[in-house]
Specification:
The complex is a heterodimer of chains A (317) and B (255). By secondary structure, chain A is of the alpha/beta class. Chain A contains nine helices and 17 strands. A nine-stranded mixed sheet of chain A has the order 9-8-7-10-6-1-4-5-11, sandwiched between helices. Chain A has a five-stranded parallel sheet with strand order 14-13-15-16-17. In chain A, helix 4 crosses helix 5 and helix 6 runs parallel beside helix 9. The longest helix of chain A has 16 residues. The model of chain A has no long low-confidence stretch (mean pLDDT 91). By secondary structure, chain B is an alpha/beta fold. At the A-B interface, helix 5, strand 7, strand 8, strand 9 and strand 12 of A face helix 4, strand 7, strand 9, strand 12 and strand 13 of B.
C-alpha cells in the first residue's frame, strides 16, 4: 500500500511529530513518499533521507499560510503519490489543511493513537471525549484514501538512511483565496507547544498568583519542557488559553507531566491522563490528582519546584 | 442580516463516563447534558453582533429532541430569536458529514444566513470537522479557532490561534462560517426575563427521516483508559522527596 507522509516545517525545522508516523507506516507495510509542504529546501530534503524516504514531493514556497491553497497542494500530492493512506501529525495547522478537503476526496481520522490493518480495512483507535475513553473506527481505502492524524509522542522516530532521493516539485497553485492572511504575531516567549512536548510542567491555583508561573518556566527551561495550566488559572487571567490542559483546552500525552498546585478536576484529568508518568505536587493529601498520579508529593509546589530546579541544574551541568 | 448558530449538546465536563454494555457508545443514561462550551462563545458572538449591527439570530441543533430542546431553550433564553431542532433517533451515531448535510439541507430550504457561527470543536468527539464540511455544502469560506473578531459591513477581520501561541490575522467576507474559540467573548448567563421570553419563542422541528441522509458506520470497541497503579507518595523532608523523585524519574528515563 502506498502512503504519503506529510512533513510540517516550523521555524525552518522539521517537526518531530511529523516523523513519528514513519515507523507506523512501515509496520503497515506501506511504501512512503514524503510531502514537504510550502518549502523547496535542499537542506530539509537531505534531512528527510535519513528517515528512509526515497521519494519526496515538495512545493514552491506558499505565500505564508494560505489555507485554501495549501489544501489544493495536498490534493495534488495525494494524486501524484497515489497514496491510499496519508499520515500527518495532529497539529492545528495540519487539521486546518486536511479538514478543507471534500469528503468525496478524503476520509479523515484525527487524534489517532493506534492503527491496525485487518484484511482491506484500516482500523484506527482514536481518543474521544478529550481522553475520557477510546474507540475504534474502520475505514476502507478501496475508493477514497484515508488521512490519519496521529497524536504526538505515540511512536518513536527511527533513523534508517536511504541511498538516493528523488525530489519532485509540485506545481504552484493559483487559487483566489477567499480567506486572506493579513499578518502573523508570534508570542513574546517562544513557548513550547504543549501538544507535542515530551515533558510538561503545569500549574494551578495552588501557585497562589500569576507571577509564580515563573518558577515553572525556570524548571521548564532546565528540562526543555512545555508549561501548561489548569482552567481555573486561565479563567482568572493568569496565563493564556493556549496553555490550558483539559477538556476545554488541550489534550496532551507527554512522557512526563508534573502537576503543581492542581487539584485534579475531572475535565483536567481527561486532558492529561494519557501522560506516561504523572507527578502531583499539592498540599492537600486528598486532592483527586493523587488518584491519577504515579508519584505524589504532599507539599507546597512553591517550595518544591525551586528545589527541583536547583537540583536538576546541578546534576545536568 | 441573518445569523445562524449551530450548537450541540455534550456531556458536562465534570461527568465521569461509563461505557454501555455492547461497547458501542458511552452510557448516555444519568449524564448531565450541557451546551458544548465552545458553542456558547458562538451564541454570544452572534448576540453581540445582533446588538451592535441588528441581526436575527437563529440557533440550530441536531440530536434527539427530548434532550436537545433544553440546549435550544437555553440559547433562546440568552437572546436568540428562533430555533430549529433536527430530531434524530437517540441511538443514531451522527458523523460530522451527516450533521453538516442535515444543517445544509435545512438552511437551504429558506434564505441562507449571512453568517454562521459554531464552536471550533465539540468536546465530545473533538473532531472540529463539521463546520468545514458545512462550508463545502453551502459554498462558504470557513475560518475556525477564532479568538477575536470584528465585523464591519460585510468584512470580517479575525484572529486565529495556531500551534505554539502564534496568532494569525485574517480577512474574509460574508457569507462565511466562523468556528469560535475561547477568548472570543464571555458568554452571558440567561437571566430570568430571558428564560420567561424563551418559553414563547418558536422551536421548529425537522424529523431526521425528512432529510434523506445516509448513515455512517459508527465507532466500536469503546474502552475506558486503563488505571494506573496506586500512587507512590514520597516521604521525608522536602529535599529528600526532591532527590527521590529525581532518582525515580531518571530510572524511568523520564528526564
Amino acid at each position: 500500500m502506498k502512503a504519503l507522509i506529510c512533513i510540517e516545517v516550523s521555524n525552518n525545522k522539521i517537526k518531530k511529530s511529523s516523523l513519528e508516523s514513519i515507523e507506523l507506516s512501515r509496520q503497515l507495510n506501506c511504501t512512503n513518499t514524503a510531502f514537504l509542504m510550502g518549502i523547496n529546501n535542499s537542506e530539509l530534503t537531505e534531512e528527510l533521507k535519513q528517515y528512509g524516504f526515497t521519494n519526496i514531493l515538495c512545493s514552491e514556497k506558499i505565500e505564508d499560510y494560505a489555507p485554501e491553497a495549501i489544501s489544493l497542494l495536498l490534493k495534488q500530492a495525494i494524486n501524484q503519490s497515489q497514496a491510499s493512506i496519508i499520515f500527518s501529525n495532529n497539529s492545528l495547522f495540519s487539521q486546518d489543511m486536511f479538514f478543507r478537503m471534500p469528503a468525496s476526496d478524503l476520509q479523515i481520522a484525527s487524534d489517532v493513537i493506534g492503527v491496525e490493518q485487518k484484511s482491506d480495512q484500516i482500523i484506527t483507535t482514536q481518543s474521544l471525549f478529550s481522553g475520557k475513553c477510546t474507540a475504534q473506527f474502520s475505514f476502507s481505502t478501496e475508493k477514497i484514501p484515508v488521512a490519519i492524524l496521529l497524536r504526538a509522542n505515540q511512536f518513536e522516530v527511527q533513523v534508517q538512511p536511504a541511498e538516493n532521493i528523488c525530489v519532485t516539485v509540485i506545481g504552484n497553485v493559483n487559487v483566489a483565496n477567499k480567506i486572506q492572511l493579513i499578518s502573523t504575531s508570534k508570542p513574546t516567549n517562544s513557548a513550547k507547544d504543549i501538544t507535542e512536548a515530551n515533558i510538561i510542567i503545569a500549574g494551578g491555583r495552588g501557585l497562589k498568583k500569576a507571577a509564580n508561573f515563573q518558577l515553572l518556566e525556570n524548571l521548564a527551561t532546565v528540562l526543555e519542557a512545555g508549561v501548561g495550566a489548569s482552567r481555573a488559572v486561565v479563567d482568572a487571567g493568569w496565563v493564556s488559553h493556549n496553555m490550558q490542559v483539559g477538556q476545554t483546552g488541550k489534550v496532551v500525552s507527554p512522557k512526563l507531566y508534573i502537576a503543581c498546585g492542581i487539584s485534579g478536576a475531572i475535565q483536567h484529568l481527561a486532558g492529561m491522563s494519557s501522560s506516561q508518568i504523572i507527578v502531583a505536587i499539592n498540599t492537600d493529601a486528598d486532592a483527586p490528582i493523587f488518584k491519577k498520579a504515579n508519584y505524589g508529593l504532599v507539599a507546597d509546589a512553591l517550595s518544591i519546584i525551586p528545589k527541583l530546579t536547583k537540583a536538576l541544574k546541578a546534576q545536568l551541568s | 442580516m441573518k445569523i445562524t448558530v449551530c450548537i450541540k449538546q455534550v456531556p458536562d465536563t465534570e461527568t465521569k463516563l461509563s461505557i454501555n454494555n455492547t461497547s458501542t457508545n458511552i452510557d448516555t443514561k444519568n449524564i448531565k447534558w450541557t451546551i458544548n462550551p465552545y458553542d456558547e462563545f458562538a451564541i454570544e458572538e452572534a448576540l453581540k453582533i445582533k446588538a451592535s449591527a441588528g441581526a436575527s439570530v437563529e440557533v440550530i441543533s441536531v440530536g434527539p429532541k427530548f434532550r436537545v430542546t433544553d440546549a435550544l431553550r437555553t440559547a433562546l433564553a440568552m437572546g436568540a430569536d428562533t430555533a430549529i431542532c433536527i430530531d434524530t433517533p437517540e441511538d443514531l451515531f451522527l458523523s460530522s458529514d451527516m450533521v453538516a448535510q442535515a444543517i445544509a439541507k435545512t438552511l437551504q430550504k429558506k434564505e441562507l444566513p449571512d453568517l454562521i457561527f459554531t464552536g471550533k470543536i465539540g468536546i465530545d468527539y473533538n473532531f472540529g470537522l463539521m463546520l468545514f464540511r458545512l462550508g463545502k455544502e453551502l459554498n462558504m469560506p470557513v475560518l475556525s479557532g477564532v479568538s477575536q473578531l470584528e465585523l464591519k459591513d460585510k468584512t470580517i477581520n479575525a484572529t486565529k490561534e495556531i500551534d505554539g501561541g502564534v496568532k494569525q490575522h485574517y480577512q474574509l467576507h460574508l457569507p462565511a462560517i466562523i468556528g469560535a474559540n475561547k477568548g472570543l467573548n464571555t458568554p452571558r448567563y440567561p437571566n430570568l426575563p430571558g428564560i420567561m421570553k424563551a418559553k414563547k419563542k418558536p422551536i421548529e422541528e425537522v424529523p431526521w427521516s425528512d432529510l434523506n441522509i445516509s448513515s455512517s458506520p459508527s465507532f466500536t470497541d469503546y474502552q475506558l483508559p486503563g488505571s494506573r497503579p496506586s500512587v507512590n507518595i514520597l516521604t521525608g523532608t522536602e529535599d529528600e522527596q526532591v532527590n527521590q523523585l529525581i532518582t525515580k524519574l531518571k530510572e524511568q528515563k523520564a528526564l
